[in-house]
Design goal:
13 helices, 365 residues, alpha/beta, single chain, eight-stranded mixed sheet
C-alpha cells in the first residue's frame, strides 16, 4: 500500500487527486474524503464478491478486508477473475479446447485473490482473512464502516445484520443464482445529500429576449439538499405478512424475485450449498418442493413462481455477477460518501428479462 502524503488541497494528496480526478468531479471532494476514511468488510469471494471488491477498491475506500474460508475450486474459474489461474492442457485429452486451471487450486480463496485485488489500487489497504464469518465475534464487525455479505446463509445474514443495525454499521448483502441476482441494504438512520436544480425565477411576461435565450443555453444552477431515510432490518424485510386485504394489494406490485429469493435461501440453509448442475435433477425436485412449502408459509400461492423456475437458478453467471456487483458496489459507495439517494431496500435483477427492479419491503406494507 502506498503511503499517503496529505499535502495536497483539501487534505488529499497529489497522487490521490490524480487517481480520483474523475470521481471527485462526479461526486465532489467531500464525498471522496468520506470514502477514503471508510473501511469495508467483504465476505464471500466468488464471482459476485470479486466484482464488488473491484468496484470498492477502484473507488478509493481506505481499506477492504476480504473474508472467505473456502478453498479455490474449479467452479471459481468461471467468474472469479481475482484468482490467478495458470492454465494447462488436460492430459486426458491434449486436443481438447478446454484448459484445466492449476496452481491456485486448494489455496484459500481470500488469500488467492489478494494479489490482484491489491494491484487494482495500491492506495487502498487490502487484507485477506481466511477464517469463517460464522466464527467471528460481535466486536469484529463493529470495526468497519460497512459490511457486505455474499455466499452466506440466511441465519448468518440475519445475525450479522442485527449486529450492524445496533452498532450503526452500514449493512449490505447480495447473491447470484444463475440468471437471478439480488442485493439488500440496511443503512439504519441514513442521511445524505442530493443535487437538485434550482428553480429559476423568470420575469412575468418576458418569454423572449437576450436574458431568456441565455437562460436556455446556460447549464442550470444546482443546490445540495439534505435528506434522510429509515431502513428496516433483513429479518423484518423477509418476514412480511402477506395475508389480508392490504397485503394482497401490495402483493400485486411486488416482484416475484422476492419469493424466489426466499426459496433459494431456504435451499441454502437445508443443503449447505446452492443449486448445483452436478445434481441438477435432484436439486430441481428440492426447489419445487421448497416452492410449495415456502410460499404456503408466507401466505401466497405457488403460482407466483412458474413450474420451470428452477431451470434458471443454477451456477453463478459472470454477466449477472457484473450487473449485480456494479449495483451493489455503487450502493456501498453512495452510502459511505453520503451522496445521492440509496436503494431502499432490495434490488432484484432478472437476467432472462435483462432488467432490474428496486423494491421497498418490510413493516409496514
Amino acid at each position: 500500500m502506498v503511503e499517503k502524503d496529505e499535502s495536497g488541497p483539501g487534505g488529499i494528496s497529489e497522487e490521490e487527486a490524480a487517481q480520483y480526478d474523475r470521481q471527485i468531479r462526479l461526486w465532489g471532494l467531500e464525498a471522496q474524503k468520506r470514502l477514503r476514511a471508510s473501511r469495508v468488510l467483504l465476505v464471500g469471494l466468488r464471482g459476485l464478491g470479486a466484482e464488488v471488491a473491484k468496484n470498492l477498491i477502484l473507488a478509493g475506500v481506505r481499506g477492504v478486508t476480504l473474508l472467505d474460508h473456502r478453498q479455490v475450486s474449479q467452479d471459481d474459474c468461471g467468474s472469479q477473475f481475482l484468482i490467478p489461474f495458470p492454465l494447462q492442457v488436460s492430459q486426458d485429452d491434449p486436443c481438447s479446447q478446454f484448459l484445466v486451471p492449476a496452481g491456485s487450486l486448494g489455496r484459500n480463496v481470500a488469500e488467492a485473490s489478494l494479489g490482484r485485488a491489491q494491484s487494482l489500487n495500491p492506495m487502498v489497504e487490502v487484507r485477506a482473512d481466511p477464517e469463517s464469518v460464522d466464527c467471528k465475534p460481535h466486536d469484529f464487525f463493529t470495526q468497519f464502516d460497512a459490511v457486505c455479505l455474499t455466499c452466506c446463509s440466511r441465519e448468518s445474514m440475519v445475525r450479522i445484520n442485527q449486529i450492524c443495525h445496533q452498532s450503526g454499521v452500514k449493512f449490505f448483502t447480495g447473491d447470484v443464482f444463475g440468471y437471478h441476482g439480488f442485493m439488500f441494504a440496511d443503512l439504519g438512520h441514513h442521511e445524505f445529500v442530493e443535487e437538485k436544480p434550482k428553480v429559476a425565477k423568470g420575469s412575468p411576461g418576458v418569454e423572449d429576449g437576450p436574458e431568456a435565450k441565455r437562460a436556455r443555453l446556460d447549464p442550470p444552477e444546482t443546490t445540495m439538499v439534505k435528506k434522510r431515510l429509515e431502513f428496516c432490518s433483513l429479518r423484518e424485510a423477509l418476514a412480511v405478512e402477506w395475508r389480508g386485504e392490504k397485503a394482497a394489494a401490495a402483493l400485486r406490485r411486488t416482484a416475484p424475485d422476492y419469493f424466489l429469493l426466499q426459496v433459494l435461501l431456504r435451499f441454502r440453509s437445508e443443503q449447505g450449498r446452492d443449486p448445483c448442475p452436478g445434481s441438477g435433477s435432484e436439486d430441481s425436485e428440492r426447489l419445487l418442493r421448497l416452492r410449495r412449502e415456502v410460499l404456503e408459509a408466507l401466505g401466497v400461492g405457488p403460482q407466483l413462481l412458474p413450474e420451470h423456475f428452477h431451470s434458471s437458478c443454477f451456477s453463478e453467471m459472470a454477466p449477472v455477477c457484473a450487473v449485480v456487483g456494479g449495483v451493489l458496489g455503487q450502493e456501498v459507495v453512495k452510502a459511505l460518501s453520503q451522496r445521492d439517494p440509496p436503494h431502499n431496500n432490495f434490488f432484484f435483477f432478472d437476467g432472462l428479462k435483462g432488467s432490474g427492479v428496486v423494491e421497498c419491503l418490510g413493516p409496514p406494507l
